[in-house]
């Protein structure tokens, strides 16, 4: 249930972002995500945690700082690419393509972590690529800048997953992991917001603020869901966002969702879900051998 709620918040945040992008630079959502994050985490820490449980000093120990900053930079760039893509093309198409990150994760893990790339995983990757062609064939219809940007975002998200595993960042408190990301996003977008603040009006400000806030809430829901589900299960359930994006596209933005779009979305779900399942299965098998 936590993952489903988190996924709903995530897709709604992109709806707010797309509407507000007609007046406000979508990158501003990264800034307001940071501001709302600072407020939410301050409240969480005050209500739930003794500050001694969150060892802030761990960030600067054993060279951890550069890795925290690198991850914050990657997440910020991924948000830049995704938010700009959402503003520049059909939300139904971008939402589907954004879920290709498990494919990039598998390929990057093979190159960096030397993880196995089985025939089954390769075949599921091919399914995902076929899904992309069904949604928008780059050789027939052509890709816009927004479509290239969402693929870059999916690549960066995949790289982030590999980085987390390589550096074992998950052993640190989730508030520290997300907080460094928020600080990075804040400083990168602060000059942009200051220079373009005159474009704000009350309506669009509320939308862009909600877009950033809802995006953060999604991450918090996913993090809490990790107490009860494996990361693979969370990732598979979150793939339902493909159809949520299509629904919002039809209901709110009068987009046309064709049978090709739906078929492509299904193939991406099968591909990404299959890769997650197969990689988790291989990881469990290796763990049994070690034990």
Describe this structure in words.
- The chain is an all-alpha fold.
- The protein has one domain (2-290).
- The chain has helices spanning 2-20, 28-48, 64-88, 91-97, 101-112, 119-135, 145-167, 174-196, 202-225, 231-238, 241-253, 259-290.
- Helix 1 (2-20) packs parallel to helix 11 (241-253) and helix 4 (91-97) packs parallel to helix 12.
- The two termini are 33 Å apart.
- The model has no long low-confidence stretch (mean pLDDT 82).
Structure, briefly:
The chain has helices at residues 2-20, 28-48, 64-88, 91-97, 101-112, 119-135, 145-167, 174-196, 202-225, 231-238, 241-253, 259-290. By secondary structure, the chain is mostly helical.
